Amino acid sequence: MELRGKVALVTGGNRGIGRAISIALAEKGADVAVNYRRNRESAEEVVDLLSALGVRAMAIQADVSDYGQVEAMVDAVVKSFGRLDILVNNAGITGEHVKLREIPLEEWDRILDVNLKGVFNCCKAAEPFLRQAKGKIVNMSSVAGKMGGTIGSHYAASKAGIVGLTFALASELAPDVMVNAVAPGPVDTDLISPEVKRRLASIIPLGRIATPEEIAHAVIFLLENDYVTGEVVDVNAGRYMD
Ligand SMILES: NC(=O)c1ccc[n+]([C@@H]2O[C@H](COP(=O)([O-])OP(=O)(O)OC[C@H]3O[C@@H](n4cnc5c(N)ncnc54)[C@H](OP(=O)(O)O)[C@@H]3O)[C@@H](O)[C@H]2O)c1
Asked: How far is the CA of 92 from the centre of ligand 1 (A)?
């Protein structure tokens, strides 16, 4: 898919990996709606950056775990930009607890609501517009969704759920909409603490965690390529070779 002139919605597009994806899309000439939940200032800063690259950009607040808010967001993007070609389901959170015996029931619900139901919500609300545009979806899974990881069963389950959702929707929405996921290893963002980053870097064959731009690069590949659907692309510097 030629990205120039296309319209993309990036959830959690204001910070970390989502910010890098928003910038990479704008560098390719796509108009970008930058979703955020709380940090309006960083969303507006990204919008200024994208506008300076010569594309249309808007900041849009919505909690992806709330279907009503997601529907209003998708409608607002289509109203402003006239269409929707690309949905990048990037927004995600971790919990405060890691061990099964320590995870409060509410924390399980909160993680699953944002990380998994949030992706379902956005796909559901965007489907008619993406079908019309013959568009694409890229979901953000994680190495934790395939290996379990170290940040909790709730997080791992939400990211494994994204893999299943990706496969099911790739089949259901073909040939109109192509649906893929990216499964990063640890990335240098605010999501994980400096201590965890150091620990994880020491067990990665390439010896370092990823930059957000290296994950955005894989997202762009999946959007530009027209013969990959139902795929989960691992971007983890050889983590599986351990
Ligand atoms: N960093 C890693 O090591 C790593 C590895 C594998 C996968 N991932 C996945 O990659 C994605 C991005 O992670 P990141 O590291 O860039 O995280 P981050 O820096 O903590 O940013 C998280 C983003 O998600 C948004 N967000 C959180 N809850 C939301 C909600 N309910 N509705 C809408 N937006 C919401 C945040 O918006 P506000 O700023 O407004 O709160 C923020 O933009 C996540 O899905 C994460 O699980 C990350």
From this structure: 4
